[in-house]
Each structure stands twice: as structure tokens, then as C-alpha cells.
Task: inverse folding
């Protein structure tokens, strides 16, 4: 009697779980090695070497230096379409180490890719492990998207450790802008009318933006700091500069907010007799677009480990990530899985949690769920078609 497609899928899932169980100790060792040796944006040389070494040894075709970044890489098993990408993050936070748990993200993506390669081989399509540097402010995935790394990919899968068990990530769009005011230096007592105070203009911009902030929509805000404000108290500052972080619920709303920043800066310059310069200081992170059909698959597989994912709490946003730019191009998932129950990431407590026994259990569970979800994408044309049909952009 012929086996049903459901039976074949269940067999593949069981084999993937067994493969990951056999690799659990080795994957945890990778996570701990990354945790003990944190590296920062675009300088994750030892992390990239460790991960690419594991993939190369397993027979993946590894390309280093992807998208012009020395610590970015792709590792490919199989060929053609369908294709699924597993995203590995491995940068840390200066002064806090792996307080965002990227050591676990890297180990989970690695383990899922290795298991898929071992169980499916070249038969099902293409598995791409993508090394993505500098998520913490550098935007490695943005550069990879622009370089075409995700072209020809049917789904991009990753998870993120956190303090919630949420099926999808409420991640906002964000960008930073540098605003500079140019005035004219003078002695504040001897020639007070000759000076044009650039710092006073910058301070006025903060005041105006504070008023603007009172009527911004939910999830939109502007946070600024002074990065240059003069050199001495007896010189009217001829130059002042601020750095402003802008966030909004959607990429379009962020573009509107950027326009308001330009308008406010130009208005202040006109009122104060200064000249304003507004320039983007970082890559733009788009908001995250969740693939509901794939997130549901992941949540179903993860539930076997006793971890139940729920929708995010309305109105709560958990920052921004360059996975948003990937999700604008291909169906993507970015669930949060808790490794501690209270507090926040980007803290010493979360860094400790990323090397805890609970983190080890979560690592094994999410690696299984990622591998099984990826296998479903590769094996089921109807699932791929539904994911693309519900994706906000044009299909493949």
C-alpha cells in the first residue's frame, strides 16, 4: 500500500528530530562558544569562521564575504527551487555580550540546516544557511537583500529568544538621521549680535520635536541626543549636531515621520538664521511582515515540545530588526521564544539566560521546529503557493 503524503511528512519530521537530538550536545557547544567570545557589528570573524567551518565540513558550498561584508556568508545544500533560507545572527552587544541571544539564533539556524542536509540531501530543493552580521544597528540583512542574496528563495526562517512566547514579532521600522545646524561664532559678551547660535537652534529642534511627538500615531517616536554642541562657553557655537532615532509601525509611516523631521529642521533654521543639514546616518530597517501560514506551521511543530506560542499583546512593540527588509521580499517568520520570564533583553540578566539550561532546552526545541517548517516549505507546493499568495509583495 502506498504511503500518504501525511505519512511521508511525519516520517521526515521524525527523522529530523532524531538527527537534531543526536546533534544537541554539539549545537549547545557552538552556542556556548559564541556566548563566551562575543564579537560586534561587522567584526564577527571568529563566529563566522566557526559557523562556516561546521557547514563546510557537512558538505555545504560556502561563500564568504557576501554582499561586501567580510563576516557575511551563504552556505548552500542542494540546488534550484524550491529554496528555503535559514538565517543566522551572531553579533553581540558592546559591553553586554550576547544579551540579545544571537548565539542561540546562530546555533538554531546551523542545526536546522545541518539536519535538513542530512535527512533530505539534494532531493528536495535548496537549503541556504545565511550568515547575517550586524543586526544590532549595522543592518547586514539590508545589504544582503540589496545584493540579491534572497532572490530565488521561497521562505526565510529564524527565531529570536526573548521573554515572551509569541508566534510573530511586532517589529517596527526604524532609521537614524543626523541633523546639523551651521551658525556663526562670536564672543557672547563682546559681540553678541554677531553670533548665530547653532546650539540654540538644535535645542529648539528638540523642543519642536517634543511637541510633534504628542500627536504621533501609536508606535511612532523620535528620540534624539546631542553629539556636538560647541567647544567653549565663551564662544557662540557655530556648529551643533544631533543624532535622532525614528521609529514607526510601518515603513510608510516612517517615511512620513522622516518628512516631518526635515520640515521641522528647515523651519527651525529659518527662524534662527542658521543653516540645517539633514542626512541619513544608518540603513533603514523596514517593519516586519509576518508570514502567518508559515508562523502557524512553526508554532505547531514547536508545540510538540510543550511550548505554546500566542499572538503578541496588542500595542506592544519589541524594537526593530533588519529581518523586516527580508520579510518585504520573501515570506518570513521571526517568532519569539522565552528563555526567561521577567525582565528584558539587552540586559546582563538576559545575557546570562542565553547560556542557561532553559536556553539549551529552547535551542533544541526551536531547531526541530525550524527544520520541520523548512522541510514543509520544500516538500509542499501548496504551502509555498499559499505563503506567496498572502505575501504583501509579488510572488516568485
Result:
Amino acid at each position: 500500500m502506498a504511503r500518504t503524503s501525511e505519512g511521508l511528512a511525519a516520517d521526515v519530521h521524525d527523522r529530523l528530530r532524531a538527527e537534531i537530538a543526536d546533534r544537541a550536545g554539539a549545537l549547545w557547544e557552538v552556542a556556548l562558544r559564541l556566548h563566551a567570545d562575543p564579537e560586534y557589528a561587522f567584526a564577527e570573524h571568529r563566529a563566522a569562521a566557526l559557523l562556516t567551518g561546521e557547514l563546510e565540513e557537512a558538505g555545504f558550498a560556502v561563500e564568504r564575504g557576501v554582499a561586501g561584508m567580510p563576516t557575511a556568508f551563504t552556505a548552500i545544500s542542494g540546488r534550484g527551487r524550491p529554496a528555503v533560507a535559514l538565517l543566522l545572527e551572531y553579533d553581540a552587544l558592546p559591553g553586554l555580550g550576547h544579551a540579545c541571544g544571537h548565539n542561540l539564533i546562530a546555533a538554531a539556524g546551523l542545526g536546522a540546516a545541518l539536519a535538513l542536509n542530512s535527512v533530505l540531501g539534494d532531493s528536495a530543493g535548496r537549503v541556504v544557511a545565511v550568515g547575517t552580521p550586524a543586526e544590532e544597528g549595522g543592518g547586514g540583512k539590508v545589504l544582503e537583500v540589496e545584493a540579491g542574496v534572497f532572490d530565488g528563495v521561497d521562505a526565510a526562517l529564524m527565531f529570536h529568544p526573548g521573554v515572551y512566547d509569541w508566534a510573530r514579532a511586532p517589529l517596527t521600522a526604524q532609521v537614524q538621521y543626523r541633523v546639523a545646524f551651521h551658525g556663526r561664532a562670536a564672543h557672547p559678551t563682546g559681540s553678541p549680535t554677531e553670533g548665530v547660535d547653532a546650539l540654540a537652534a538644535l535645542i529648539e529642534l528638540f523642543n519642536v520635536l517634543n511637541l510633534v511627538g504628542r500627536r504621533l500615531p501609536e508606535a511612532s517616536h523620535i528620540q534624539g541626543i546631542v553629539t556636538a554642541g560647541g567647544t567653549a562657553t565663551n564662544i557662540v557655537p557655530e556648529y551643533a549636531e544631533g543624532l535622532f532615532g525614528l521609529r514607526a509601525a510601518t515603513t510608510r509611516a516612517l517615511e512620513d515621520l522622516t518628512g516631518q523631521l526635515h520640515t521641522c529642521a528647515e523651519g527651525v533654521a529659518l527662524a534662527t538664521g542658521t543653516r540645517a543639514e539633514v542626512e541619513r546616518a544608518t540603513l533603514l530597517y523596514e517593519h516586519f511582515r509576518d508570514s502567518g501560514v508559515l508562523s502557524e506551521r512553526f508554532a505547531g511543530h514547536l508545540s510538540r515540545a510543550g511550548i505554546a506560542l500566542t499572538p503578541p499583546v496588542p500595542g506592544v512593540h519589541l524594537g526593530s530588526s533588519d529581518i523586516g527588509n527580508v520579510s518585504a521580499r520573501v515570506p518570513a517568520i521571526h517568532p519569539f521564544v522565552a528563555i526567561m520570564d521577567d525582565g528584558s533583553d539587552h540586559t546582563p540578566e538576559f545575557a546570562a539566560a542565553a547560556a542557561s539550561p532553559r536556553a539549551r532546552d529552547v535551542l533544541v526545541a526551536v531547531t526541530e521546529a525550524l527544520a520541520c517548517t523548512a522541510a514543509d516549505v520544500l516538500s509542499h507546493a501548496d504551502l509555498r503557493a499559499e505563503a506567496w499568495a498572502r505575501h504583501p509583495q509579488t510572488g516568485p
Observations:
- The mean pLDDT is 95.
- The longest helix spans residues 5-36.
- DSSP finds eleven helices and twelve strands in the chain.
